[in-house]
Amino acid sequence: MASAAAILPATGHAREGRYENNAATRERPWVRALILTLALSFFVLFLLLPLVVVFHQALAKGWGTAAAAVTDPDALAAVRLTLLAAGIAVPLNLVFGVSAAWAIARFEFRGKQVLSTLIDLPFSVSPVIAGLIYVLIFGAQGWFGSWFIEHDIKIVFAVPGIVLATIFVTFPFVARELIPLMQAQGRDDEEAATVLGATGLQTFWRVTLPNIKWGLLYGTILCNARAMGEFGAVSVVSGHIRGETNTMPLHVEILYNEYNFAAAFAVASLLAMLALVTLALKSWVEWQANRVVTQKEAMVRK
Amino acid sequence: MSIQVAEISKTFAGVTVLDRVSLDFPTGQLVALLGPSGCGKTTLLRVIAGLETADAGRVILEGEDASSTHVRERQVGFVFQHYALFRHMTVFENVAFGLRVQPRKQRPKEPEIRRRVMRLLELVQMAWLADRFPQQLSGGQRQRIALARALAVEPRVLLLDEPFGALDAQVRKELRRWLRALHDDLHVTSIFVTHDQEEALEVADRVVLMNRGRVEQVGTPDEVYEHPASPFVYGFLGAANVFHGRVEGANVRVGGATLNHDGSNADHGAEVVAFVRPHELDIVTDLAAPNGLDATVRRVLAFGGSARVELDSVEAVKAGAEPIHYEVVLPRERAVALVQGQRVRLVPAPLRVFRNEAA
Amino acid sequence: MSAAVSFFNPTGQTRVLPGFGLSLGYTLVYLSLVVLIPLAAVFIQTASLTWGEFWAIVSAPRVVATYKLSFGAALLAAAINAVFGLMLAWSLVRYSFPGKKLVDALIDLPFALPTAVAGIALSALWAGNGWLGALLAPFGIKVAYTPLGVLVALIFIGVPFVVRTVQPVLEDLETELEEAAASLGAHRSQTFTRVLLPVLTPALLTGFALAFARAVGEYGSVIFIAGNIPMVSEIAPLIIITKLEQYDESGATAIAVVMLLFSFLMLLAINLLQAWSARRTGRNR
Question: What ipTM is given for this predicted complex?
Answer without folding.
Answer: 0.90
